[in-house]
C-alpha cells in the first residue's frame, strides 16, 4: 500500500478513537437536556427531542447546589492559597537557604509523596475530631495545606535561578521575604501557574477527603453533594439521570473552562515535569 | 586527579568572628523558618498519623466507645484469619494488574497512533486527554448511566447485535469491569502524553540507521522503540500501580463494594471498617498492611529501575 493510503487509514483510526473517547462527555451533555421519558425510549436518541433547559433549574433545586458550590470554592481557594505560599517559602529554604540538616529534611518532604491520604485518613479523623474540627473548613483545608510535589518542583525552579539575583537583592537591602516575593517568585511564575492549575483541579474534584471529614448538608462540597443526590433517588435513578447529568455538567464546567484556556500550558508542563 | 588539601588550619576565635558566627546562626535560623510551616504540616498530617496508626492498630479502639485497651497483634491475627482479607487482596491486585496493564497498553497504542505533528492531531490529543481532568465522581455517574441495566446505552448497543442485556453492575463477574472502564477512560490520555514525550526523546538516527539496514517498522518497535521507552514505561508502571491500589471513588459511587463483595478493594474495606463498623483498631491494622504493600512495591520497582531499565548513553 502506498504511504498516502496508510496516512488516510491512520487518520480515520485516530478520528474514530477520539470520537469514542469524547463520547461519554457528549452523552452526559445530551442526557442533561432530555426529558425523563426520553431517557427510557426503546431506541435511544442521540439528539434531544427538545432542549430542556429547565432540567438545570430543576437539578439546582433538587439539592442545595448553590451552598455546595460556595463550599467547594472556599475549600479550593483555601488549599490553593496555602499550598502555593507554603511551597514558595519551603522551596526557597531548600533551594537557596542554608541551615543544618537541610538536605535530610528535604528527603523527609520527598518521602511524604509515598504516603497516600488513604493511609492517614483514619488517624487524622481521630485527631480532627478531638480538635472538634470535623465538619469545618479547617478539616477540609489545613491537612492539604502542603504539597510535597509542589515544593519539589519549585525547588528545582529556584535552584536554576542564579545566586547573583539574591545577592543583588541583599545589596539593595531587601529582606528575605522581599527578595523571595518580589524577585524569585515572578521569575518562577510559569511553574507556579502550572501548579496552581493542577491544585485547583484536584481540590475541585476531591471526593474522598470531604466525604469523610464532613457530615452536615451545609458543609458538603459539589462532588459529595451529587453523590448524595444520586443516593436519594436510588432505585429510581433511571428516571432521574437527566437531572444527575445536568448537575454533573454544572460541576465540570469550571474544569473544562480552565482546561480549554490553559490546555497547552498544562500539557507541556505535564509532559516535561513528570520524571525529570 | 588533584586532591584537595585535607587539613585545615583551625581558625583563631576573635571577637569579630564570634559575632559573625552568631550572625550566621541567625541567618540559618531565618532560612529554616521559611521551611518550618511546611515541615510542621507534613509532620502533623503525614508522619504523626503514620505512627499514630501503628499505635491504634495494637488497640481494640472502637470509635463509638471511649475506652481503648492494648491488645498486641490481635487485630492482625483477626485479619489474616478472615477469608474476606484474602478475597479483598485478590480483588485489589486483580483490579490493579488489569488497570495498569490495559491503561499502559492502550496508552502506548494511542501514543504510536497519535505521534503526528499536525494541528488536527494535536486537537484530537487534547480531546483524549480531557477525561483525565474530569472528576472521578462525575465520570462514575456517566458510566453508571451507560452501564444501566434497563436503559443504558451499552445494553442497547449490544442488543443491536442480538445479544441479551447484561446486568453489568449487579453481576459479580462484570462489576469490576465497570470500574476498570471508568479508570481506563480517565487514565489513557495522560499515559499517551507521557509515552509521546518518551517517543520524541528517542534520537531519529536510530531509526534511520536501522531503516538503511532494511529493518521494518515492527522490528524497529521491538528492538528500538520499546527498549528505549523503558524508563517511561517504568515510571508509568510505578505511578499507575500505586494509584490503582488506592481505588475508592468509583467503587463508592458505582458498586459500594458489591455485588457479593466482588469489588471490595482494600481502601474501600478500610473505609467500611472505620466509618461504617467503627472498628478503628482493626481498620488501622489494615492501613498498616496496605502501607507496607505500597512501600514494598515502591522499593521493588526502584531496584528494578536500577537493574533492568535501559537508559541511553
TrEMBL record, chain A:
<keyword id="KW-1003">Cell membrane</keyword>
<feature type="transmembrane region" description="Helical">
    <location>
        <begin position="239"/>
        <end position="262"/>
    </location>
</feature>
<dbReference type="InterPro" id="IPR000515">
    <property type="entry name" value="MetI-like"/>
</dbReference>
<feature type="transmembrane region" description="Helical">
    <location>
        <begin position="137"/>
        <end position="154"/>
    </location>
</feature>
<comment type="similarity">
    <text>Belongs to the binding-protein-dependent transport system permease family.</text>
</comment>
<keyword id="KW-0812">Transmembrane</keyword>
<feature type="transmembrane region" description="Helical">
    <location>
        <begin position="73"/>
        <end position="93"/>
    </location>
</feature>
<keyword id="KW-0813">Transport</keyword>
<feature type="transmembrane region" description="Helical">
    <location>
        <begin position="180"/>
        <end position="201"/>
    </location>
</feature>
<dbReference type="GO" id="GO:0055085">
    <property type="term" value="P:transmembrane transport"/>
</dbReference>
<feature type="transmembrane region" description="Helical">
    <location>
        <begin position="105"/>
        <end position="125"/>
    </location>
</feature>
<dbReference type="GO" id="GO:0005886">
    <property type="term" value="C:plasma membrane"/>
</dbReference>
<dbReference type="InterPro" id="IPR035906">
    <property type="entry name" value="MetI-like_sf"/>
</dbReference>
<feature type="domain" description="ABC transmembrane type-1">
    <location>
        <begin position="69"/>
        <end position="262"/>
    </location>
</feature>
<protein>
    <submittedName>
        <fullName>Carbohydrate ABC transporter permease</fullName>
    </submittedName>
</protein>
<feature type="transmembrane region" description="Helical">
    <location>
        <begin position="12"/>
        <end position="30"/>
    </location>
</feature>
<keyword id="KW-1133">Transmembrane helix</keyword>
<keyword id="KW-0472">Membrane</keyword>
<dbReference type="Pfam" id="PF00528">
    <property type="entry name" value="BPD_transp_1"/>
</dbReference>
UniProtKB/TrEMBL annotation, chain B:
<dbReference type="InterPro" id="IPR035906">
    <property type="entry name" value="MetI-like_sf"/>
</dbReference>
<feature type="transmembrane region" description="Helical">
    <location>
        <begin position="283"/>
        <end position="304"/>
    </location>
</feature>
<comment type="similarity">
    <text>Belongs to the binding-protein-dependent transport system permease family.</text>
</comment>
<keyword id="KW-1133">Transmembrane helix</keyword>
<feature type="transmembrane region" description="Helical">
    <location>
        <begin position="32"/>
        <end position="58"/>
    </location>
</feature>
<feature type="domain" description="ABC transmembrane type-1">
    <location>
        <begin position="89"/>
        <end position="301"/>
    </location>
</feature>
<dbReference type="InterPro" id="IPR000515">
    <property type="entry name" value="MetI-like"/>
</dbReference>
<keyword id="KW-0813">Transport</keyword>
<feature type="transmembrane region" description="Helical">
    <location>
        <begin position="128"/>
        <end position="147"/>
    </location>
</feature>
<keyword id="KW-0812">Transmembrane</keyword>
<dbReference type="GO" id="GO:0055085">
    <property type="term" value="P:transmembrane transport"/>
</dbReference>
<protein>
    <submittedName>
        <fullName>Sugar ABC transporter permease</fullName>
    </submittedName>
</protein>
<feature type="transmembrane region" description="Helical">
    <location>
        <begin position="175"/>
        <end position="197"/>
    </location>
</feature>
<dbReference type="Pfam" id="PF00528">
    <property type="entry name" value="BPD_transp_1"/>
</dbReference>
<keyword id="KW-0472">Membrane</keyword>
<dbReference type="InterPro" id="IPR051393">
    <property type="entry name" value="ABC_transporter_permease"/>
</dbReference>
<dbReference type="InterPro" id="IPR035277">
    <property type="entry name" value="MalF_N"/>
</dbReference>
<feature type="transmembrane region" description="Helical">
    <location>
        <begin position="218"/>
        <end position="242"/>
    </location>
</feature>
<keyword id="KW-1003">Cell membrane</keyword>
<dbReference type="GO" id="GO:0005886">
    <property type="term" value="C:plasma membrane"/>
</dbReference>
<feature type="transmembrane region" description="Helical">
    <location>
        <begin position="93"/>
        <end position="116"/>
    </location>
</feature>
